[in-house]
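Follow-up to my earlier ticket, as requested here are the two runs.
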Amino acid sequence: MVKGQVVQSGSTSSARSQQRALVVALGASNLSRGLSRLVTICRRGTSKPIDFFAGAGHGRSYGANSRIWNRRLPSILGSGLWRSLDRYSGSDALNSTTRLAVITDIGNDLLYGFSVEQIAAWIEEIVFRLQQRGFYVVITQLPIQSIQSVGSLRFHILKSIFVPGCQQSLEAIKDQSLQINNKIVSLSKSHHVTILRQPGSWYGIDAIHVKRSCLNKLWQRVVDCWPEISQEQHAMRGVHGFSGWQEWSRLGAASAEVRSLSGLMLFTPQPVLQLADTTRIYLY
């Protein structure tokens, strides 16, 4: 309960049950791989149930439609997440005083050949949309230490596996990664967002995916940047994450609202999952 707030006898539990946290997480493969961990850490950090909106997916682009094998996803900017946030109204919206967002996995668009200026413009638009809707925003920088450690042979192998259509040279990617991080620093100053640097030791041999053993460290640092959640975290009043493997597996099998498989457009109603504490998860 907020200090100084007066609640009539018998209404405390009802008022508390109506208060919700609204979290938006945007990214690509690292977010998809670590989504359940991020949800768990957020739930541990607040006593409120959460409405969790995620725009993720392997190879996801912020500003262009993307394809991995036979699966296509719309860009994060063009996804239904924004429409859904704007429909988020009534009592839920009125009681969602905690509004938090993380932007991560920005490097994919470099591999797709988009310019630093174009990517920065997309990220700035994302920040603008989030702040218009009242979100506290955290952005993770590219893992420069990990990227700079890649040699030509490893780059050729990784490019062949993950982005066979990439026309960028290794030196161009390294230089543009530094430029992107500089753009993020400028963005943080002009728009008052929090930036998070990631040590190279968190990343595996492919230099772009966080080691599974380090995903909790990443998300914990993200959550620690959010004052509304981190202040409550010390009291540990929240739930302790997923109640069992059934919830984990249901989230792992869940699908985005709109996706294309082998040319067939598929639609999944949202939210895809509601947990025991009424936390709801939406995927876009």
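Run two:
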Amino acid sequence: MTGKNQQNYNKNYIDYVNSFDPPTKHLKNCYHAFMVGGLICCIGQFIRYMLQYFFALEGDALAGSTSIVLIFLGCLLTGLGVYDRIGKNAGAGSIVPITGFANSVSSPAIEFKTEGYIYGMAAKMFVVAGPIIVFGVLSGVAVGLLYWLMGL
């Protein structure tokens, strides 16, 4: 096939494949992502207020407790299969907050549970989140060393 025929063939094939693909509704998807992400953040703020009011937590203890509750809720909803349905409708709105990180850690653990606790669940738990954790720790060490070298 010559170059022009190959390009024509590729274009025809792409047009054929796209004819089966429904058009993307970008505005609707952005709206759902914004609303669900905002709702998750509002739930987090509500949890923060409740922990502050009922348990008189402040500062780092309040921030840490709120994060722990949100991570627990994200893992629980993932285990119950609810978070997948939220993600299907919300898109990026469900993966941005801390609950999305909890979902990305717990989903592979649940999926590979049948392979055993060590080689399945424990090994696959950090497939998605592992690079985030590694680069986060390395970045923290690099910034700490930089501050230490600068004498700050």
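The only thing I checked on run two: The mean pLDDT is 85. Let me know what else you need.
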